[in-house]
Write a structure and sequence with these properties.
Blueprint: E1 4-14, E2 20-27, E3 42-46, E4 52-56, E5 66-71, H1 76-82, E6 88-95, E7 108-114, H2 118-129, E8 138-144, H3 153-161, E9 165-170, E10 181-182, E11 199-204, H4 207-219, E12 227-228
Parallel strand pairs: 7-8, 7-11, 8-9, 9-10, 11-12
Antiparallel strand pairs: 1-2, 1-6, 2-5, 3-4, 3-6
Length: 231
């Protein structure tokens, strides 16, 4: 079993809604060596009280810190959300199979996620963009509840400038003046110029969302073995 490491909260990055924030963890005593993991893997974080939970890594392999996207809920998530910068936590990992895209070099990469599921897809994007010549088209479909629930919104401009076809849809516009797509994330699939035979998909979400997207992707011609989950 992977041993626990003490890490310190070094930064807190607010997101669009008050109950979601990004948290950066670094090794105690300064920058740790570049981290090597598979994009899509996760960490088990133990808060000071002893409460523990799993969080997908939102940073990319090689970044000098781990970044997590945390939603204030209950247990460890609530405690971690409220901890101040400088607090030490215990971390076990990286764990899980992640998205082993190295074996899919040459393919188009389609990323689909909702809500805080953007975290592991952000890690994948950073990794694939650092190996841009190894892959074909990069497409991100991201669904959120309302426009303010859009996490890592500022990253989207950089991704689009790097050639990523990054699309966002909301379930409801709320009181905002949203002019983009409205609906479920799978509603964006038929709008793509998809090449099923050369596409690999990284899919993140709850069971109903995963099932709906998987069924539609297969209808569109994507082979089941190229629809990847990170757990």
């Amino acid at each position: 079993m992977t041993s626990a490491t003490s890490m310190r909260i070094v930064a807190v990055i607010p997101q669009g809604v008050a109950d979601i924030r990004a948290i950066r963890l670094d090794a105690e005593g300064g920058l740790a060596p570049a981290r090597d993991f598979i994009p899509g893997q996760f960490l088990q974080v133990h808060a000071p009280s002893g409460e523990a939970s799993y969080f997908a890594i939102a940073s990319s392999p090689g970044d000098p810190y781990y970044e997590l996207l945390v939603k204030r809920a209950k247990g460890c998530s609530k405690e971690l959300f409220d901890l101040p910068i400088g607090t030490t936590v215990r971390v076990v990992g990286p764990q899980g199979k992640g998205f082993p895209l190295a074996s899919h070099a040459g393919r188009d990469v389609l990323l689909i996620g909702v809500g805080t599921g953007i975290a592991p897809l952000r890690s994948v994007l950073g990794w694939t963009l650092s190996r841009r010549a190894d892959f074909g088209r990069l497409t991100l479909l991201y669904g959120v509840l309302t426009p303010p629930h859009w996490c890592y919104e500022t990253d989207f401009s950089a991704w689009r400038s790097a050639g990523v076809d990054a699309r966002v849809t909301v379930t409801t516009t709320g009181t905002s003046s949203w002019s983009g797509a409205v609906g479920f994330v799978q509603d964006l699939l038929p709008t793509l110029d998809l090449a099923p035979a050369r596409t690999v998909v990284c899919l993140v979400g709850m069971k109903d969302m995963v099932d709906a997207n998987t069924a539609l992707l297969q209808t569109l011609g994507v082979s089941p073995e190229r629809i990847l989950l990170n757990f």
